[in-house]
Amino acid sequence: MAKRDVPPRWDRKMQQRLARGEAAALGELYDRFASLVHGLAHRVLGDESAADRLTREVFVHVWEHPDSYDPKDGPLRTWVAALTHRLAVQRLRATETAALARDGSGTAEELEHRVRSAAVAARADYIVQAMPVPLRSALERAYFQRRDYRQAAADLGITEDEARRRLRLGLQLLSTAHDTEAPGAPPGFGGAV
């Protein structure tokens, strides 16, 4: 198993290529993470065109500030997700605050509740996407297909005990979406909502 302080080779190489200004590196990064960025942005903002704009902004930021990512701090995927989350929450807060000032409908507490709800939903999405495939597969069967642990075990070709274990672990990870410093969520996904 690799040491925690040694980032994956791809992440280090990508950061170096971006720092050198290789346009192909940005394209490769976009191909790999655009759906993650857009999905998180859409989950927080709730608007397709706003998510499209924010996705562009995230990749512009990465292109213009490649040195703001330090491979020693964790995976590039996590950094990009945290950047997306931070920018999306800032945009939502600014948009909602402007609407509150303009319309006078709602309160600052309601605004903060909407922002926090969107942030938790984005963290939950990220946790599900980042969890190991066996856990995600069991949760998807239980949630989307409404399968119990016995049915999930049969679908996945595993024992019932293993199905219960996977479901329990997956739900434990997912429950951290409400935590201010969730272990399954990237840094920056926590209390800075």
UniProtKB/TrEMBL annotation:
Protein name: Sigma-70 family RNA polymerase sigma factor
Domain of life: Bacteria
One Pfam family from the record: Sigma70_r2
Coiled coil residues, start to end: none
Keyword entries, A-Z: Sigma factor, Transcription, Transcription regulation
Residue intervals of the RNA polymerase sigma-70 region domain: 29-94
Similarity remark: Belongs to the sigma-70 factor family. ECF subfamily.
InterPro entries for this protein: RNA_pol_sigma-70-like (IPR039425), RNA_pol_sigma-70_dom (IPR014284), RNA_pol_sigma70_r2 (IPR007627), RNA_pol_sigma_r2 (IPR013325), RNA_pol_sigma_r3/r4-like (IPR013324), WH-like_DNA-bd_sf (IPR036388)
PANTHER family: RNA POLYMERASE ECF-TYPE SIGMA FACTO, RNA POLYMERASE SIGMA FACTOR SIGZ
Species assigned in the record: Streptomyces dubilierae
